[in-house]
């Protein structure tokens, strides 16, 4: 006999009324994760001003449970990469990412982090996804606060759908080993 | 108020290779050997008093000899006048005396000129790259640095 056909279970549910609900453990974990993001702002350039704007009370990221910046990557879930990343900074960014505990997510904030933006020269990394995995890209130079909130909500949708593995590991290590691709030069 | 370029030409005309003045921007091209002496004169003379080195930068005139220029922008807070000093340096030995002894602010600007143009400053004492990393080969603002050349520390060459 299936669980939902068991008369004892049916009676138990009927007496319970609306005082409880049934769900999956995975859905509960993901629900709690998506509404309690602790973010680490890795701010390097002018996009930082726009980040302050969206993090402030006017646009109020706290509505999404994403208000508390942690200034240690070890306490953060969400890495906000805000601003141009130079080749000189790239090892620092990778180190910060590696120091964050699982589970962790990355948002690329602004055109420079997505693709290098207006800068294609000896100094600038052409998109942080050449160094670390990125979950959500927010384009714009700089992005509007509404775009950032949209990106944040898209990340929440993504987090809600995630599988929670039995060993708790969020990303497999082989995903972190990024392939070295020689881009053809123009 | 004394015209700084005229004062310089009268006192140290032997060290000035050429000069011009246009729209209030006076420029003197100075013999690199005499640079430090000329700069000390400009800083210490009554009526000139250039207390401030506001900018120091390199220029690459590829194909011309001497190929490199170092441009110094001087400002006197006391008299509110300015003067631009240029030294020209040959391609095979782009080297000039450091001005850190004269104006301490020259320190980082000379390091930047070394970083971007490969111009050496004698007696600087700490002539490391300022902006780029030690692993970087070459000097990216030279006109013959390939504009597509990338030297990432990690990740793909992009």
The greatest interface between two protein chains, and residues involved on each side, is:
A-B, 22 and 17 residues
Total number of strands of chain B: 7
Q: Report Rg of chain A.
A: 20 Å
Low-pLDDT runs of chain B: none
Helix fraction of chain A by DSSP (H/I, runs of at least 4): 25-40%
Beta-strand percent range of chain A = 5-15%
User: How many strand elements of chain A?
Assistant: 5
Number of helices of chain B: 3
Would you give the CATH topology of the domain at 41-160 in chain A? Answer: Rossmann fold
Residue-averaged pLDDT of chain A: 85
- Order of H and E elements of chain A: HHEHEEHEHEHH
Describe the secondary structure blueprint for this structure:
The complex is a heterodimer of chains A (186) and B (158).
Chain A: H1 7-16, H2 25-34, E1 38-43, H3 47-55, E2 68-69, E3 78-82, H4 90-99, E4 105-109, H5 111-115, E5 136-138, H6 145-160, H7 173-176
Parallel strand pairs in A: 1-2, 1-3, 3-4, 4-5
Helix pairs in contact in A: 2-6, 3-6
Chain B: H1 4-12, E1 16-22, E2 25-30, H2 35-44, E3 52-60, E4 68-76, E5 81-89, E6 95-97, H3 106-117, E7 120-122
